[in-house]
Amino acid sequence: MRTETPRSAGLLASSLVLNTPQTPDADAFLEARAARTGHLVTEVPLDALTDWRLDDRLSHVSGRFFTVEGLSVRTDFGPVPQWSQPVIVQPEIGILGIITKRIDGVPCFLMQAKLEPGNTELVQYAATVQATPSNYQRVHGGRSTPYLEYFREHTGRRIVFDQLLSEHASWYLHKRNRNMIVEVPEDEDVPVGDDFAWLTLGQLRGQLQRGNRVNMNARTVLSGLSYRTGAGPEDDPHSGDVPGDAFQRQVVASHRAGCSDADLRAAMTWLIDQKARFSLDVRRVGLGELDDWVCGPDGIRHREGRSFRIVGLSVAAASREVGSWSQPVLEPTPGNVVALVCRRRAGVLQVLVQAMVQPGLTDRLELAATVQLTPGGLRGPEDLPPLVEYLEAPEPWIRLRSLQSEDGGRFLRADTEHLVIEVPEDHRVEAPDNYRWMTLGLLNRLIRSGYYVNVEARSLVACML
Amino acid sequence: MRTETPRSAGLLASSLVLNTPQTPDADAFLEARAARTGHLVTEVPLDALTDWRLDDRLSHVSGRFFTVEGLSVRTDFGPVPQWSQPVIVQPEIGILGIITKRIDGVPCFLMQAKLEPGNTELVQYAATVQATPSNYQRVHGGRSTPYLEYFREHTGRRIVFDQLLSEHASWYLHKRNRNMIVEVPEDEDVPVGDDFAWLTLGQLRGQLQRGNRVNMNARTVLSGLSYRTGAGPEDDPHSGDVPGDAFQRQVVASHRAGCSDADLRAAMTWLIDQKARFSLDVRRVGLGELDDWVCGPDGIRHREGRSFRIVGLSVAAASREVGSWSQPVLEPTPGNVVALVCRRRAGVLQVLVQAMVQPGLTDRLELAATVQLTPGGLRGPEDLPPLVEYLEAPEPWIRLRSLQSEDGGRFLRADTEHLVIEVPEDHRVEAPDNYRWMTLGLLNRLIRSGYYVNVEARSLVACML
Q1: How many CB atoms lie within 10 A of CB A149?
Q2: Distance from A243 to chain B by nearest Cα, in Å?
Q3: Cβ B95–A133 below 8 Å, yes or no?
Q4: Which of A175, A460, B64, B110 could form a disulfide with B134 if both were Cys (CB 3.0 to 4.6 A apart)?
Q5: Is residue B87 a contact partner of residue B360, using CB atoms and an 8 Å limit?
Q6: Roughly how many angstroms between the first and final C-alpha of chain B, as a whole number?
């Protein structure tokens, strides 16, 4: 389908356009790249990892990349007041960057078909650039990172989005990456590498809806996009007449409602109230100090098999910076779910978010989805979070259900079910005090303001685009 | 002097008014309170502190208030790549709140004459409320905190400023307090307690210029005020005609220049660039693991007397929540200085700030003053920071010089010299890459955005109001 669009069409037009003369078929492109990728991913003992050393922590001999250490946690948020766990420490700030450019007037995004060894679907669409300083300074002696200069030497470029955002704060300590979208002028030639393709937002939406085709790093960057006038690559002149299905029309309208400066300030004040309500104290400790965890050459695991385990992975692949390597990964227990409950109030779609303390967050607490469930981490049904009953919502309430991967560069088989549930207008949701309804426009402004929305919620927001 | 002001005058008018029918003489009020305060502050051994325990860390038996622990630091910022030091850990978020109200149309601020045992000048003007949860939940069984309800139950109130801001990140780990200014309507009666007084901004400026009369907590809250239209208690209609001395006219104009949304985004992107450039890795350790520090009943001190020492303080006083108590305090080596270098460009005053890594910052790096010098922490002249030569600037360049106390509830005799230096228009300052010129308006917007400006720089900004 080729839709006629004006030269100056904005993000909304991009979400309705499924191809341009320069965009490939998104399914076929990904499948061709996946078929071409010669790869072999094997689980190995930790002591078989080249250049990794396990003592009081698990670390790379170079001192770079990341370490796995122990974390001692005390908090009055949630059912468990105190625990210890392994945690990934990676103080480096990586760049997750997408180049956007108008093609025939329609904003397109330069996506990379990228293999990540931990993903169930090995090859997925990633951001144009996804690199840590350890990568791009070539600690492992690999190839240079293509397109990095668009983000490192950005002076004079139009920066659509640029923010440090948190990542998986149950598994990482204080991890954040720089999320960037940089726009190049329509007449600037951008060479398109072999594994790269321009996609419209409509194509990306299709891939997101199918699940496990757009990786976590791309999803967090895309969550910075908004249908709000002025927040996308260009002001969108088409606010009146939005085609697409009824729910997407609601999404677009919600991006444009309830997000004034005053709304933003009120939400921030409410969030500070929540930060002051709950306590969190974390302390890095040695792996040997984790009472409930067993550390050995075959991996690091919970005595009762809860939460996750750390194992080794050996990778041989052609399409990454280096041909083959081995590394530790974190494999969560299966069954993780994130769900966003929505409702309409005065005709406007709102989503229910919660202020959630997580041990690895930089500032204690961020907004999370209505339900963020890690069943493998619970001691029993008494640990189930509030509103978990909405995971059993009747099928007609479900607006989105897909499986999405977490970062396959650090996590193994970490597939999270993503659910968006719209309750009927006469249905009343009884939520605790640390929950709050907001429009997608307000949630997007909070995402664009820094450490306010956690990565699981941002992933859901990207899937709703 | 009583200046005629219109009913709807704003912050600028308040800075020019030196009294109202309801404001006392600021000097006399403070001196009367100081004279009335019966107090006795004595240094005591750590093991003489009631309810405090020194083992691998120094802590209160209740588990509340704060602890002194060890911190192991690695960074590539500055001359020292790795060190260990004691650090104060206080995960609680306190409230620093000032009530503002128009009196005869002029915004006034409700200030408290407050004793803090560590201050050289024991009684100073503090915020209306200055309280940690340990205080206001009355862990030590003291009196309730007056005016707390204006900040804790703020629904429906006009919130002029509300932000979590960092504090002394060389001495505290991840410490932040909630800085608030709440406006009550002109016709709402606010009972004025014995130790409280309404002051105009002009009166506060006078006290700030004299030094050691407005405490650190009040200064950080006041740094959220701006002469920019719309940022103060009310839009200011007097932008055209600003009396006062020539430098203050420059200050007011600088609050109103170079601070558009685009300027703010550009500054934030530059700050993220700096965060990505430098590394910081901190780890809490036991006091016994600090090689260069000696811990004993008589205190915790550096073997060579550098940086600071931790000692005990016994306090008997009438005008605090409890009559007497004892606690540990941190006494820095004397001679600390913060200096802001200013210049005029195209007629607009700009200040030179630097992106500075400090071990206790929540997000690695914030903006600091041009020079932030702790001479007692240096190994020798080779550790002197860039631009330190401006501390010897000729007297005609000096716009402000005063001694200001740090938080006298935690620090002993911690007086920091505050300097503002304006270089001549034809003088060129050679600054490293992590330094940047900005207007006071932009710096104020960054202060209001969260963890962007450190407390030493905020204190200078407040002194320039």
Answers
A1: 11
A2: 32
A3: no
A4: B64
A5: yes
A6: 20
Name the residue in chain B with its Cα closest to that of A276: B93
Tell me how many residue pairs between chain A and chain B have CB atoms under 8 A apart.
Answer: 58
- As to burial, measured by CB atoms within 10 angstroms (0-12 exposed, 13-18 middle, 19+ buried), residue A20 is buried
The residue among A447, A440, A436, A437 whose CA lies nearest residue A465 is A440
CATH topology for the B261-280+333-464 domain:
Nucleoside Triphosphate Pyrophosphohydrolase (3.90.79)
Q: What are phi and psi of A266, to 5 degrees?
A: -65, -40
- How confident is the model at residue B134, as a pLDDT? 77
B61 band by pLDDT with thresholds 50, 70 and 90? very high
Q: Which residues contact A428 (CB under 8 A, 6 or more apart)?
A: none
The arithmetic mean of pLDDT across residues A408-435, rounded, is 97
Q: Which residue has the tokens 């804790």?
A: B152
pLDDT over 50 at B7, yes or no: no
Instruction: Please tell me the distance from the alpha carbon of residue B157 to that of residue A310, in angstroms, as a whole number.
Output: 50
Q: For the range B414-417, what are the long-range contacts, defined as Cβ-Cβ under 8 Å and sequence gap of 24 or more? A: B414/B118, B414/B330, B414/B331, B414/B332, B414/B336, B415/B120, B415/B212, B415/B334, B415/B336, B416/B336, B416/B337, B416/B338, B416/B456, B416/B459, B417/B336, B417/B337, B417/B338
> In angstroms, rounded to a whole number, what is the distance separating the alpha carbons of residues A388 and A381?
11
Query: CA nearest B69 in A: which residue?
Result: A283
d(CA B408, CA B118): 4
CB B240 within 8 A of CB B52: no
Strand segments, DSSP code E, in A90-202 are 94-103, 106-115, 123-126, 129-131, 158-166, 172-173, 176-183, 196-200
Max Cα-Cα span within chain A: 63
Specify which residues B411 forms β-bridges with: B330
Residue showing tokens 């600390």: B336
| Helices and strands of chain B, counted as H and E runs | 10, 25
Calculate the dihedral angle through the C-alpha atoms of B408, B411, B413, B418, rounding to the nearest 10 degrees.
Answer: -80
- Residues of chain B with C-beta less than 8 angstroms from the C-beta of A159: 265, 269
From chain A, pick out residues whose CB is under 8 angstroms from the CB of B279. 91-92
CB contact under 8 A, A268 and B162: yes
Q: Which residues contact A364 (CB under 8 A, 6 or more apart)?
A: A275, A278, A280, A357
| CB contact at 8 A, B146 and B97 | no
- Which residues on adjacent β-strands are paired with residue A461? none
Could you tell me where in chain B the CATH 3.90.79.40 domains are found?
11-37+91-241, 261-280+333-464
- If phi over 0 gives left and psi between -120 and 50 gives alpha, with beta otherwise, what is residue A197? beta
Structure tokens at A346: 């005065």
3-state SS, residue B427: coil
- Cβ–Cβ contacts within 10 Å for residue B362, how many? 20
Quote the pLDDT of residue B20.
81
Residue with tokens 């409320």: B129
The ipTM assigned to this model is 0.91
Tokens of A330: 């974190």
pLDDT tens digits, one per residue of B161-203: 999 999 999 999 999 999 999 999 999 999 999 999 999 999 9
A92 to chain B: closest CA residue: B279
Contact list in A for residue B363 (CB cut-off 8 A) is 164, 362-363, 451
Contacts of B276 in chain A (CB under 8 A): 93, 95, 133, 178
pLDDT tens across A36-66, in order?
877 789 999 999 998 999 999 999 999 889 9
What local confidence, expressed as pLDDT, does residue B229 receive?
Answer: 65
For A57, A145, A409, the CA distances from A63, given in Å and listed in that order, are 12, 21, 18
CATH topology of domain B11-37+91-241: Nucleoside Triphosphate Pyrophosphohydrolase (3.90.79)
Residue A240 has pLDDT above 80, yes or no: no
